[in-house]
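Is iron/sulfur cluster placement plausible here? Inputs below.
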Amino acid sequence: MKKIYFDSKNKKDCNGCGTCSLICPKKCITMEEDEEGFFYPKVDKSKCIKCNKCKNVCSNFNEKKENNEKAYAVINTHKKYADKFSSGGMFFALAQYIIEKGGVVFGVRYTEELKVVHDYAENIDDVVKFCGSKYVRSDLKDSYLKVEEFLIKDRYVLFTGTPCQINGLKKYLGKEYEKLLLCDVICRANPSPKTFKMFKQNLENTNNKRVKMISFRGKRNGWESPNTLIMYEDGKEEKNNVFLNAFGADLINRPSCSKCVFVSKRRISDITIGDLWGVNEIFPSLQFKDGVSLLIINSLKGKQVFNEIKNKIKYKEVDYDKACSFNYFKVFPVYVNRKKFFKFIKKGKINEENFIEMMEKYMKLGFCRKKLKRLKEIINA
Ligand SMILES: Cc1cc2nc3c(=O)[nH]c(=O)nc-3n(C[C@H](O)[C@H](O)[C@H](O)COP(=O)(O)OP(=O)(O)OC[C@H]3O[C@@H](n4cnc5c(N)ncnc54)[C@H](O)[C@@H]3O)c2cc1C
Ligand code: SF4
Ligand code: SF4
Ligand code: SF4
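Reply from A.M.:
I modeled the complex. Tokens:
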């Protein structure tokens, strides 16, 4: 049976897309931040007319059937921005196609204060700000409304985001638009903006200078071993993978990610992009330096767009199942110490002065608990 957040009140049933708040005819739903830094809908019951539109529009369901997708290894040969791409630069190729058609590209950028937000770009220089994965839940702001406005004006629109954000947009629009191209990233989790802010603040407090940029996909050790590169206002740089590791370990991620209905081969967009992990085994002779994207075509529209841009990229067809076998197409349970970690943030025991140290400590504790559990299983076997 479908579990809707409004009925279950279980945070795992809400991905935070905000579509319900946009659709409510009485405007009585607001998206409010919880103590972990994630947004959830809150209903003003005094204004609610019980029309159920919010429940019917909820995006946290995957109604897509598995189809025979085609998958490709892609390298964008656009040298100027290659170091900015997370992998092979497939997003940039799609964005260029839309911009050349006079269209608008929606993606995720940092603000001056390094908040992670959705925004739109109408020229290629602004598109570059969307390049590079920010492993933080983005604030969608009024993106869905803006997408609709541009489509009504008959502009081409490329919307990129996590699968739940794509599904939220589809539910909000409620109908197909020929000029809308949807591109999702392969995604199995997304961290809390509050923890990212604390991470940044801790770095600034420790070093007594402003952090100018955080790049999660530093390629100096090679694309396959990404490092988080911290860039300070004085030009100094530092490598610090603690946040990336906590994301990978599921210590700081949105609760809905541990029960995500989109972590699957049933892709809800026209085109899916990701990293082609395992490329050395799949194509041992392929030459690459800055990374290889995995491109999955999910719809006829996706296929048509690919046919129009394929002469501008280097690509090779890849066995879909094999490519996916190296990637994350399953959900991970929440981390053993997650609850305690956030409880201590709430109490102020974990704060901007000790955040990185405590993140490391909690991950070590979790690692020991996992080992102990495994040891008990072996003894009892
Ligand atoms: C939260 C998250 C988790 C991911 N997990 C995986 C994974 O498990 N396996 C995998 O193969 N790939 C994953 N990816 C995708 C991967 O990081 C690259 O985006 C992908 O390889 C495409 O590379 P590119 O060179 O074409 O993209 P780039 O040129 O780097 O473009 C990045 C694209 O990602 C979008 N984006 C950036 N940050 C966010 C964000 N916070 N939320 C939504 N969209 C964002 C941008 O708008 C742009 O469209 C994840 C991405 C995100 C954002
Ligand atoms: S039931 Fe209708 S009026 Fe009430 S919160 Fe939901 S959408 Fe709004
Ligand atoms: S529509 Fe989105 S924000 Fe509203 S309950 Fe469903 S998943 Fe949560
Ligand atoms: S794992 Fe699922 S719920 Fe979490 S951000 Fe990705 S698509 Fe959304």
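Short version: Residues 18 and 182 are 18 Å apart (CA to CA).
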